[in-house]
Specification:
By secondary structure, the chain is mainly β. The chain contains 3 helices and 38 strands. The protein has a 22-stranded parallel beta sheet that branches. The radius of gyration is 26 Å and the shape is elongated.
Length: about 425
C-alpha cells in the first residue's frame, strides 16, 4: 500500500511504530511543512532532503530504524544520489509513491550502485522489499556505474520499479557469500538509453527459488542474463531490441513461459553449458520475432565435455527471416545434447526451421509447423534422434513400390535429409 502524506501530517497523533519518512527537496509543500513540524519529535525518523546528496538523509532514516526493521516511506519528488544507499539489516521496506512520482537519480560522476541490499560484510539480508519508484542511472555521466540495484536478499519482494538509463547493469541479483532465495520480482521495466549498459537483469551465482514475472527489458546487449542459477521461474517477460534477449549459462531447473522476444539482433533465447551442464528446462508458449538475417530465435548449446539435458521446447511461435528457428548444438567435437523435446512449435520464414547439431541423442523433433521455412529441418550430428510428423518436412517413408520376384532392391520416396 502506498504511503498517504496525510499520514505524515497526522503522525504526531498516531503510533507510528517502525516507520521513517524521507521528504524530497521538491516534494509537495504540505508534506515538507508537516515533516518540518514532526522532525523535532521524531528525530532521524523524519528526514528533509536539500537536493544535494540526498542519499545521506535516506541512509540516516534507514539507520534510525530499530534492529527489528521497519519501513522507509519516500515522498513524491526527485532524490539526488551521490553515494550508494546500503540496506544492510533485515526486515526493511523502502517504498515510493509510484515510478512516475518518486525518482532516485544518480548525480554526475558518481558511478556507484544506487541501492545495495546486502549486509555490511556482503552477506544476505532477510525479508527486505522495494516498491513503487524509479532508479535513474544518468548513464551519460555514470557510464561505469556497476548497477542501479543490487539484491542479496532472502524472501524479499521488488515490485513496480522503473530501472532507467543504467551505466553497466540495471538490476543485479547476486551474492558471493550466500544464496538469494525465495524472492519475487514483479512489474519491472528496465530500459537502456545511452548504450553503455551491458545487462538489464543480471542473475548470478547463488540465486535459487526466485520468481520473475511481468518484466520489460529493452535495448541492452544482454536483456536477461543467468549464470549458475537454479529453480527459477520467468513468466510474462517482454524483451525488445536487445542483442541477446534471454541468455543462460550453466543454469538448471528453469521455467521460461508466456513471454515475448522481439527485434533481437543475435539470439532470442540462448541456453549454454560451459563450466557445468544445463539441465531440466521448460521453454513454452513464447513468441519470437526478428528481422535480422543472422539472428537465431533459440540456441541450445554445450561446450566440450558439457551437456544440455532434459529440455522441453513446446508451443512457441517464431517469425522473421532469421538464420534458424531452433538450433541444438554447435557441431561435432562440442558438447552433448540429450533428451531434448522440440514439439508443437510454429516456425515461419527462417532459413532453417530446426537443426540438430549436437553429439548425443534421444532428441525428438515432432509435430512442429515449419511450412514457411526455406529448409524446415536438418540433422547434422547425433544419433538416435526422432524426427517425425512435422508439417513442411516429410520424415516418414511415403509413396508406393511394386516388388517382383526378380527385384533385389526397391526405391521408396521419402523426405529424410542426407547425413
Amino acid at each position: 500500500m502506498k504511503t498517504s502524506w496525510a499520514e505524515v501530517r497526522q503522525a504526531a497523533f498516531m503510533p507510528l511504530g517502525a516507520t521513517a519518512y524521507v521528504v524530497a527537496s521538491d516534494a509537495p509543500i504540505a508534506a515538507r511543512k508537516a515533516a518540518t513540524l514532526l522532525k523535532a519529535e521524531m528525530g532521524n525518523l523524519v528526514q528533509l532532503c536539500d537536493g544535494v546528496a540526498d542519499n545521506v538523509e535516506i541512509q540516516a532514516a534507514i539507520d534510525a530504524l530499530p534492529s527489528t526493521g521497519g519501513r522507509i516511506a519516500l515522498s513524491d519528488g526527485q532524490f539526488n544520489i551521490a553515494a550508494t544507499i546500503n540496506v544492510n539489516d533485515h526486515y526493511i521496506t523502502i517504498e515510493g509513491q509510484g515510478p512516475e512520482a518518486t525518482i532516485l537519480k544518480l548525480a554526475n560522476a558518481v558511478n556507484a550502485i544506487i541501492l545495495d541490499f546486502r549486509t555490511g560484510a556482503g552477506g544476505i539480508v532477510h525479508k527486505c522489499n522495494l516498491f513503487d519508484l524509479t532508479l535513474n542511472g544518468n548513464s551519460a555521466n555514470n557510464a561505469t556505474a556497476p548497477s542501479l540495484l543490487r539484491v542479496g536478499v532472502q524472501k524479499g519482494q521488488f515490485a513496480n520499479l522503473y530501472i532507467y538509463d543504467a551505466g553497466l547493469k540495471g538490476i543485479e541479483v547476486a551474492n558471493p557469500t550466500g544464496s538469494s532465495i525465495g524472492n519475487y520480482f514483479h512489474n519491472l521495466w528496465l530500459y537502456s538509453v545511452a548504450g553503455t549498459a551491458t545487462r538489464g537483469l543480471d542473475v548470478t551465482s547463488g540465486v535459487v527459488d526466485n520468481m520473475f514475472d511481468h518484466i520489460i527489458v529493452e535495448r541492452f546487449p544482454w536483456g536477461v542474463y543467468l549464470t549458475t542459477v537454479a529453480n527459477c521461474i520467468f513468466d510474462n517477460l517482454f524483451c525488445d531490441f536487445n542483442t541477446r534477449a534471454f541468455s543462460a549459462d550453466d543454469s538448471n531447473r528453469i521455467i521460461l513461459v508466456n513471454s515475448f522476444f522481439t527485434n533481437h539482433t543475435d539470439r532470442g533465447v540462448s541456453v549454454i553449458a560451459t563450466g557445468a551442464n544445463s539441465e531440466d528446462w521448460i521453454i513454452a508458449n513464447c513468441g519470437f520475432s526478428s528481422a535480422t538475417a543472422a539472428a537465431y530465435h533459440m540456441v541450445l548449446d554445450a561446450l566440450a565435455t558439457r551437456t544440455i539435458n532434459n529440455v522441453v521446447v513446446a508451443g512457441n511461435t517464431m517469425s522473421g527471416a532469421v538464420t534458424s528457428g531452433i538450433l541444438l548444438g554447435s557441431g561435432a567435437g562440442a558438447g552433448t545434447g540429450n533428451d531434448v523435446l522440440i514439439t508443437n512449435n510454429r516456425i515461419d520464414d527462417a532459413t532453417y526451421g530446426t537443426t540438430l547439431n549436437a553429439n548425443g541423442g534421444n532428441c525428438t523433433v515432432a509435430y512442429n509447423n515449419m511450412r514457411g521455412c526455406a529448409n524446415p529441418h536438418r540433422t547434422l550430428v547425433g544419433s538416435g534422434h526422432i524426427v517425425r510428423a512435422n508439417q513442411g518436412f516429410v520424415t516418414e517413408n511415403s509413396g508406393t513400390a511394386t516388388v517382383t520376384a526378380a527385384a533385389t532392391t526397391v526405391v521408396v520416396a521419402h523426405g529424410l535429409a542426407a547425413a
